[in-house]
């Protein structure tokens, strides 16, 4: 059971959620018309700035014994990695802006940044789930995309909701979080990403 829980925690790490998000957008929005070379370039940039860069920083902190584990299981170890994430996501936001992607895609990244900053602030007093913040944001992306395009495959909705439940159960089973920390993480990610995508889309309609 614990092996399975560790597997889902690794595959659904928050460091990969923006990458998963951009892949979803390439498959389930009108961005599917982009040439494959452009898709690979953009997806690689997202993976670098939001996945590889923060992971490398965490690995360096682990090797220099600044943190006890790569999973950042101690609440007090999370502040610096969160700030590094914010910087990486900021570069990624600029990267997507220069790639001239639709403004609601920028809203997705802006929502991710907002959720990380919120998690950072909450983490000073209470341990909120970063994993569930990540997948909550991914689910918020799905609902935001559905609201903007007025269409979305129901199978993907169901899959994301199912994976959210599985991941939350895994984090609780591993003793990493309580139910309230899991629910708070989901709400944090979902509200920020869904709200930001709609806000950015509304801004686009006005201007």
How can the largest sheet be summarized? none
Amino-to-carboxy terminus distance: 52 Å
Helix content: over 70%
Reading the helices and strands in chain order gives HHHHHHHH
Report the total helices. 8
Quickly give the structural class. Answer: mainly alpha
**Strands, count:** 0
Parts with pLDDT < 50 across at least 5 consecutive residues:
none
Shape: globular
Mean pLDDT across the residues is 89
User: How big a fraction of the residues is strand?
Assistant: under 5%
The whole-angstrom Rg is 16 Å
Question: Your description of this structure?
Answer:
The chain is mainly α and 207 residues long. The protein has eight helices and no strands. Helix 1 packs across helix 7. It is globular, with a radius of gyration of 16 Å.
Primary descriptors:
8 helices; globular; 77% helix; 207 residues; mainly alpha
Q: Briefly, what is this?
A:
With 207 residues, the protein is an all-alpha fold. The protein is built from 8 helices and no strands.
Secondary structure elements and pairings:
Elements: H1 2-11, H2 17-28, H3 36-63, H4 79-98, H5 103-123, H6 130-149, H7 154-173, H8 179-206
Helix pairs in contact: 1-7, 2-3, 2-5, 2-6, 3-4, 4-5, 5-6, 5-8, 6-7, 6-8, 7-8
């Amino acid at each position: 059971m614990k092996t399975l829980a560790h597997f889902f925690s690794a595959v659904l790490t928050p460091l990969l959620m923006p990458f998963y998000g951009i892949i979803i957008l390439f498959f389930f929005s009108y961005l599917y018309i982009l040439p494959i070379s452009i898709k690979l370039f953009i997806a690689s940039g997202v993976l670098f700035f939001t996945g590889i860069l923060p992971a490398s920083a965490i690995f360096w902190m682990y090797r220099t014994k600044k943190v006890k584990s790569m999973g950042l299981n101690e609440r007090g170890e999370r502040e610096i990695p969160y700030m590094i994430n914010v910087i990486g996501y900021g570069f990624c936001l600029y990267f997507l802006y220069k790639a001239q992607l639709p403004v609601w895609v920028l809203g997705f990244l802006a929502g991710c940044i907002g959720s990380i900053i919120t998690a950072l602030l909450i983490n000073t007093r209470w341990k909120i789930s970063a994993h569930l913040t990540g997948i909550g944001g991914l689910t918020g992306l799905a609902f935001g995309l559905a609201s903007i395009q007025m269409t979305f495959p129901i199978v993907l909705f169901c899959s994301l909701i199912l994976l959210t439940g599985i991941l939350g159960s895994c984090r609780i089973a591993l003793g990493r979080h309580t139910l309230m920390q899991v629910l708070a993480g989901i709400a944090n990610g979902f509200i920020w990403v869904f709200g930001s995508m709609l806000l950015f889309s509304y801004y686009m309609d006005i201007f």
